[in-house]
Amino acid sequence: MHPMVKPALRRGWRDLNTVQFGMAPAHAMVLGPMDTATGSFLTLLDGTRGLPLLRDEGRGMGLPDGHVDGLVERLARAGLLDDATGGGPAADALREKPAVLDRLRPDLASLSLVAPEPGDAMRRLTARRSLRVQVRGAGRVGVVLATALAGAGVGRVDVQDGGCVEPWDVAPGGLPVESIGERRDAAAGRAVRRAAPDRPPGHGGAQPTSGEGDPGLSLVIIAPRDGLAAHAPDPTAAEPLIDSGTPHLYAGVVEGTGVVGPLVLPGDTACAGCLDLGRTDRDPAWPRLLAQWRSGKSRHVAPCDLTLSTTVAGLAAGHALAFLDGELPSSAGARLEVSVPGFDWHARPVWQHPACPCGTAEHAKGEQTSDDERPHETMSGQQPRAARLAGTWRAHV
């Protein structure tokens, strides 16, 4: 082990005996009391020395025997310590590709803030390289989302869509203007390959599919160019994903409103069918309206400004990465909505519906304390269940 105080957190002394790691409240931590010699020793925890050498240098600074080991253990328990040589064989292989690792260093530093064990951040980063994600939709949301995942180290990102690139599909970070007129799937594949820090030339394009779920997929993201299919997803289109147990996430923009979620974990969280049935319960006219909206294809360019589509793509990519890294984002059993011009995010729960054939409601029966405590406008009732699901789906992925 080569101990290293996590460099992602800036260090500052609050007084002569108390050191603060980090500025932002989400990850900042205060450690003390700390004597002057121990404070000076912290500068040696930079990942260039193993424990034997650190013990020798500690003795040379007048620190008593056992003090260095105690400090290292204390910092590790606090989640402030990383291992510059940790992460296992896959991490060692990545370190042999310095150009690739340098591209990923900002992502590695960010992972270190949420991965408490030394070496765990590197382990999570290398785990991404073995995963495969499919993005269905090559518009302003889908391609930007796909390139973000590829750039963050996901090993394979396939983009599926039909037709040819239109001028209004072009977006910074997505399809370039040079791709207008080309096949969307081919152009999206090139954009993904350009974003990836390390990718064999054949990866990144669409793969042949029958529309069924693929057990080799870690996640499917449904980001259609027509935002209606994300705002009001068709339950029948998701049936193969439910049947195969494939996790899937919805993201898109419709009429100046962006949506992210729900993240569907088949059998555990609400699906598109639950969403549809819940809307029908609240508004009996919903099926009639939806049939009209789906019946004809608009000849007009849909409202999807760059700032909104980029915001949605970024949030959806963040939720996808959190899930792939073994966490459970707030979009599990919920959807987040944001509209122009205010850009205020709102989280809305998506409850399991007892009439939905996905069976999630039956599976979850008894996990809520009572129907009277079931919230209608907040997410609080779903959090305990979401926390329990995190470990389960970490094993699946």
Give the gist of this structure:
It is built from 15 helices and twelve strands. The chain is α/β, with parallel strands linked by helices and 397 residues long.
Distance between the termini: 28 Å
Proportion of residues in helical segments: 25-40%
Give the spatial strand order of the biggest sheet. 7-6-8-9-10-11-12
Q: Quote the beta fraction.
A: 5-15%
Count of all domains? 2
Q: Catalogue the unreliable spans.
A: 200-211, 368-388
CATH superfamily of the largest domain: NAD(P)-binding Rossmann-like Domain
* Distinct helical segment count: 15
What is the class of the largest domain in the CATH system? Alpha Beta
Q: Per CATH, which architecture of the largest domain?
A: 3-Layer(aba) Sandwich
Structural class: alpha/beta
String of helices and strands:
EEEEHHHEHHHEHEHEHHEEHHHEEHH
**Shape estimate:** elongated
Average pLDDT metric = 87
The CATH topology of the largest domain is what?
A: Rossmann fold
Tally of extended strands? 12
Strand count, sense and closure of the main sheet? 7 strands, mixed
What would your notes on this structure say?
The chain has 397 residues and is of the alpha/beta class. The chain folds into 2 domains: 3-98, Outer Surface Protein A, domain 3 (Alpha-Beta Complex), CATH 3.90.930; 127-396, NAD(P)-binding Rossmann-like Domain (Rossmann fold), CATH 3.40.50.720. It is built from 15 helices and 12 strands. It has helices at residues 36-41, 51-60, 67-77, 89-95, 98-114, 120-128, 142-151, 184-195, 228-231, 235-244, 272-282, 286-295, 306-324, 360-364, 383-396, and strands at residues 3-5, 11-15, 18-21, 29-31, 81-83, 132-136, 156-160, 219-222, 248-254, 257-264, 334-339, 346-349. The protein has a 7-stranded mixed β-sheet with strand order 7-6-8-9-10-11-12. Strand 11 (334-339) and strand 12 (346-349) form a beta hairpin. Helix 7 (142-151) packs parallel to helix 8 (184-195). It is elongated. Mean pLDDT is 87; it is low at 200-211 and 368-388.
